[in-house]
Write a structure and sequence with these properties.
Elements (H helix, E strand, L loop, with lengths): L1 E2 L2 E2 H32 L6 H19 L3 H22 L9 H23 L15 E3 L4 E3 H23 L1 H11 L1 H6 L4 H27 L10 H11 L4 H21 L7 H12 L10
Antiparallel strand pairs: 1-2, 3-4
Length: 294
């Protein structure tokens, strides 16, 4: 069976790849949106902490003997604590200054972290096995669906929606949003705003680390894996709207699918289609698809 002259198996295969990429776009852009929306920081170190999540999983497996599921629980917490230290010791000094200072600091931090791992492990990818429970796949008739890739899509979607619900529809999320608008008023109600800001940054980095652990069996573990992805993720955040939680989720999955379809119909444009869409969106709606217009 063919669609526009393209075999259905090839099209569905590319759509699956697009959904996989979209899952990581959504998780990473969600972390960026949380950090920017609630802390007003353009976090260029996000790709580095994504890579750190994958490396923590790799080290837990090869040095400690802990498998994928333990890594999925431990790595985000460990990298989130790293984010907490970074916020307390470095980023805290930049609040109230221009966004450019935070961008430059996090960009430099990303280069340092990437350089340290590259010096120790080189630039080639390191293998990380798919957990035994998720090996194999399902024959759907028109395509073969690997179990692990299906798990990544479902897990990332659930994490994204749970994060959105927490921030938009719970008391904690209300406090977080209020703290960005009027921190003095929130502090007057007895809420520790600096601690809330620190934990928010740690949570944003933990989301990136979670994406890194899930990406390890698919893309292998490499010091450069974050640097290859961060520019695309920033484009996704801009399209969705800087600081928009739902914009990050919808744009992440949607642009992953568009990228997959582009590989089917016009492969030459697959590496630039997201940036073309970003340019069009910025010309028509500078605040992004879900961003608040000023």
């Amino acid at each position: 069976m063919e669609v526009f002259g393209i075999p259905i198996q090839a099209m569905m295969g590319q759509l699956l790849i697009g959904l996989i990429n979209g899952s990581f776009y959504a998780l990473l852009s969600l972390g960026l949106a949380v950090i920017f929306g609630l802390l007003n920081i353009i976090n260029f170190a996000h790709g580095a902490v994504y890579m750190m999540g994958a490396f923590v999983a790799y080290l837990l497996l090869n040095k400690v003997g802990l498998g994928y599921w333990w890594s999925l629980a431990i790595a985000p917490v460990a990298v989130g604590l790293f984010g907490v230290v970074v916020e307390r010791t470095l980023l805290e000094r930049l609040y109230g200054l221009d966004h450019l200072y935070g961008l430059l600091l996090t960009f430099g931090l990303a280069l340092v972290v990437q350089g340290l791992f590259q010096n120790e492990y080189g630039s080639s990818g390191l293998p990380y096995a798919i957990p035994a429970q998720l090996q194999g796949g399902q024959n759907l008739g028109f395509m073969f669906l690997p179990n692990y890739r299906a798990w990544v899509i479902v897990a990332s979607l659930l994490v994204c929606l749970l994060t959105w619900f927490t921030i938009e529809h719970t008391r904690l999320g209300g406090y977080l949003r209020a703290a960005t608008e009027n921190p003095q008023l929130v502090q007057a109600f007895g809420i520790n705003v600096p601690r809330m800001i620190t934990l928010t940054y740690g949570f944003g980095t933990a989301l990136a680390a979670l994406a890194g652990v899930m990406a390890a069996p698919i893309y292998q573990v490499s010091p450069l894996m974050g640097s290859h992805l961060i520019i695309v993720v920033f484009a996704v955040v801009v399209i969705g709207g800087m600081g928009s939680i739902m914009g990050a989720i919808v744009s992440g999955f949607g642009l992953g699918l568009i990228e997959g379809l582009t590989k089917v119909f016009y492969p030459e444009a697959s590496t630039t289609v997201i940036f073309i869409i970003m340019t069009i969106v910025l010309l028509i709606r500078p605040a992004g698809l879900f961003g608040a217009q000023k």
